[in-house]
């Protein structure tokens, strides 16, 4: 993965989670949350690429991503 | 014993000849059933000794010898029983009789025992009348119903049928007449009442249907507003879809807000328009306008009407008082549209006229101005200018709405509001794009590119994801009675997401997906508290 720069803005992730859950996020949890997000994104992209291939698209279109979004979100329902 | 033996011995002897004869007879009968007399005699002879009969005989033969059981215990009852039996009873199968006999009564050994049994039977008969009924017809006749029947038979010839009328009419006639009068009055009144709903639909339809109609009108407003939804969806499609999952973003309300700004124009305009609608004469123009609008309308046009319906009351009088004719409408529409001023005044309308003149409807407006009838013209002649203005305004409004929505979307990207009313940012697009491209490459095509649209979709998906995950985490923390989201929560979440299992720990995942510095952060976690501590140590070891 990206070496030099920071991978993601940790404060942003914390803010997002705090806003949605109205609870404070303890230290370093955001890393795991981001890890989970990375897993989700991996799943999403994998499914999207599969969908795009099935649809015969070149690259990944927004349509395939949207199609797959719901399913992958359901996968990551806690 | 001996007889049974003999019968058993006889059986094969008898059975043996039978099949032969039967076989021959069967063959002959098949060939010539009725022509040969000699065959018939043979057949009759055979018929007397059919296997069925032999079996019956065999069944009957052991009957006298059955005392096998009873012979040892008591001689006489068994003999008596056998003596009692009638040939018809013998025809029954022995097994059934045996069971019946045994079931019916155990064998009475001594005369005292028999007396006792009789007593018992009588008592049983007293308890269970059904038995008596079966056995004796007399007792059945003595049932209360039978007694009553007999009594009725005796009384029937003596008794005369009651004739109610002869004495009745003298005394109570007047009463009856009065009651009849009442009845006469009543049936006249009541019968029609009962029949009214059936027959007189028209009169009472009004009374009955008025409330529903009023409700229907209100409902119409609502329904039209609900019809508004497709309009929102059409104009707002991308944002609405994107915001579907997020409660916080509240795009529906935003949609309302969007409509409100440009809707001011349409609203007032439509308010007058609707006011016109309520006049009976305007139905046809309304229909035409509607059709015209529907012909060209986008979703927004439909949406406009409901809004106008909702708020028409405030605006209508102003328009009626303030503006003379259609021109007023024409004027008002453009005036507020560009200026977006809150309240119209007559003085302000003149510049609006100029504005419309600029638009190129000078001739029409001038004519309309010349014919200054306040109420009639808006009603009678709204069609031409109305429709045109409507279309122009609507189109303009559409474009503006779209623009505003786009603006809002862009604004939304920066600031979203969660369901708790807390603003939150979304992950920077660059980060998401980088991650997404790397994952897309690992997923399949090596040179996959994430274009702008798909990046937007991914961003939206990630927003939803964060919302969902945060909800879950918050729920876990709340369940645990904590006010902060802990590591245990996210670990639980990942386990529930089936991202981690016995073989894959969150730290192995982290090692796979996260850069080293973030792993360092994870390692900072106090180890002993959680089960994760082990994993942490292991990770450390692995890395060492």
From TrEMBL, chain A:
Any one GO MF annotation of this record: protein heterodimerization activity
Gene3D superfamilies: Histone, subunit A
InterPro entries (alphabetical): CBFA_NFYB_domain (IPR003958), CENP-W/WIP1 (IPR052484), Histone-fold (IPR009072)
Keyword Transmembrane: no
UniProt xrefs under SUPFAM superfamilies: Histone-fold
Gene Ontology cellular component list: kinetochore; nucleoplasm
Pfam families attached to this UniProt entry: CBFD_NFYB_HMF
Compartment(s) of residence: Chromosome, Centromere, Kinetochore; Nucleus
Keywords (A to Z) from UniProt: Centromere, Chromosome, Kinetochore, Nucleus
Domain (Transcription factor CBF/NF-Y/archaeal histone): residue spans on this chain: 9-67
A GO biological process held by the record: mitotic cell cycle
Primary site of residence: nucleus
Family statement: Belongs to the CENP-W/WIP1 family.
Name this protein carries in UniProt: Transcription factor CBF/NF-Y/archaeal histone domain-containing protein
Organism whose genome encodes this protein: Hyaloscypha variabilis (strain UAMH 11265 / GT02V1 / F) (Meliniomyces variabilis)
UniProtKB/TrEMBL annotation, chain B:
Family annotation (InterPro entries): CENP-T/H4_C, Histone-fold
Compositional bias ranges of the Low complexity kind: 72-88
Ranges annotated as biased composition (Acidic residues): 279-289, 342-357
Domain CENP-T/Histone H4 histone fold stretches: 420-526
Gene3D superfamilies: Histone, subunit A
Ranges of compositional bias, category Polar residues: 24-35, 291-300
One Pfam family hit: CENP-T_C
Record's keyword terms, sorted: Chromosome, Nucleus
GO biological process: replication fork processing; resolution of meiotic recombination intermediates
GO MF annotation terms: chromatin binding; protein heterodimerization activity
Record GO cellular component, one term: FANCM-MHF complex
Subcellular location: Chromosome; Nucleus
Keyword hit for Nucleus: yes
Start and end residues of each stretch annotated as Disordered: 1-42, 54-241, 269-309, 331-391
The keyword Nucleus belongs to this UniProt entry's keyword annotation: yes
Protein name from the UniProt record: CENP-T/Histone H4 histone fold domain-containing protein
Record organism: Hyaloscypha variabilis (strain UAMH 11265 / GT02V1 / F) (Meliniomyces variabilis)
């Amino acid at each position: 993965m990206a070496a030099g720069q920071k991978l993601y803005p940790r404060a942003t992730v914390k803010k997002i989670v705090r806003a949605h859950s109205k609870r404070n996020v303890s230290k370093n949890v955001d890393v795991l949350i981001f890890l989970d997000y990375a897993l989700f994104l991996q799943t999403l992209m994998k499914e999207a690429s599969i969908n795009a291939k099935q649809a015969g698209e070149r690259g990944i279109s927004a349509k395939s991503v949207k199609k797959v979004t719901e399913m992958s979100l359901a996968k990551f329902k806690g | 014993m001996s007889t049974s033996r003999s019968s058993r011995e006889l059986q094969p002897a008898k059975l043996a000849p039978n099949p032969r004869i039967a076989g021959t007879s069967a063959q002959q009968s098949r060939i010539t059933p009725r022509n040969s007399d000699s065959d018939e005699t043979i057949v009759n002879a055979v018929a007397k000794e059919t296997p069925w009969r032999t079996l019956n005989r065999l069944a009957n033969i052991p009957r006298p010898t059955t005392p096998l059981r009873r012979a040892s215990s008591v001689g006489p009852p068994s003999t008596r029983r056998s003596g009692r039996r009638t040939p018809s009873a013998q025809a029954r199968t022995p097994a059934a009789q045996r069971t019946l006999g045994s079931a019916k009564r155990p064998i009475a050994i001594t005369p005292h025992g028999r007396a006792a049994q009789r007593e018992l039977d009588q008592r049983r008969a007293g308890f269970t009348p059904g038995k008596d009924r079966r056995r004796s017809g007399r007792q059945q006749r003595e049932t209360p119903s039978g007694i009553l029947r007999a009594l009725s038979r005796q009384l029937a010839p003596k008794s005369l049928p009651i004739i109610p009328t002869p004495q009745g009419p003298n005394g109570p006639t007047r009463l009856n007449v009065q009651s009849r009068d009442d009845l006469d009055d009543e049936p006249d009144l009541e019968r029609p009442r009962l029949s009214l709903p059936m027959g007189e639909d028209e009169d009472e339809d009004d009374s009955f249907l008025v409330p529903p109609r009023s409700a229907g009108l209100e409902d119409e407003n609502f329904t039209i507003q609900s019809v508004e939804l497709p309009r929102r969806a059409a104009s707002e499609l991308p944002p609405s879809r994107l915001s579907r999952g997020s409660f916080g973003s509240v795009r529906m309300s935003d949609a309302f807000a969007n409509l409100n700004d440009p809707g001011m124009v349409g609203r007032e305009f439509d308010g007058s328009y609707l006011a016109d609608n309520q006049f009976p004469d305007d139905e046809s123009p309304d229909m035409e306008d509607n059709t015209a609008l529907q012909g060209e309308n986008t979703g927004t046009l439909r949406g406009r009407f409901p809004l106008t319906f909702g708020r028409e009351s405030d605006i209508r009088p102003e328009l009626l008082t303030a503006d003379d004719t259609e021109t007023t409408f024409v004027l008002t529409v453009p005036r507020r549209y560009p200026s977006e001023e809150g309240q119209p005044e007559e003085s302000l309308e003149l510049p609006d006229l100029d504005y419309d003149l600029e638009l190129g409807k000078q001739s029409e407006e001038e004519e309309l101005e010349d014919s200054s009838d306040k109420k009639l013209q808006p009603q009678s002649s709204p069609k031409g200018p109305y429709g045109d203005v409507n279309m122009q305004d609507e189109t303009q409004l559409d474009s503006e709405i779209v623009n505003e929505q786009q603006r809002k979307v862009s604004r939304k990207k920066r600031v979203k509001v969660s369901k708790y009313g807390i603003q939150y940012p979304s992950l920077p697009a660059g980060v998401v794009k980088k991650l997404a491209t790397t994952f897309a490459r690992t997923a399949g095509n090596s040179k996959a590119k994430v274009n702008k649209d798909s990046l937007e979709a991914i961003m939206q998906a990630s927003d939803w994801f964060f919302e969902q995950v945060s909800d879950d985490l918050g729920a876990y923390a709340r369940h645990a009675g904590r006010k902060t989201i802990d590591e245990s929560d996210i670990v639980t979440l990942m386990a529930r997401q089936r991202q981690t299992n016995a073989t894959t720990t969150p730290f192995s995942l982290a090692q796979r997906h996260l850069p080293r510095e973030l792993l360092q952060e994870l390692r900072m976690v106090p180890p002993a508290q959680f089960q994760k501590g082990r994993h942490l140590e292991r990770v450390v070891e692995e890395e060492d």
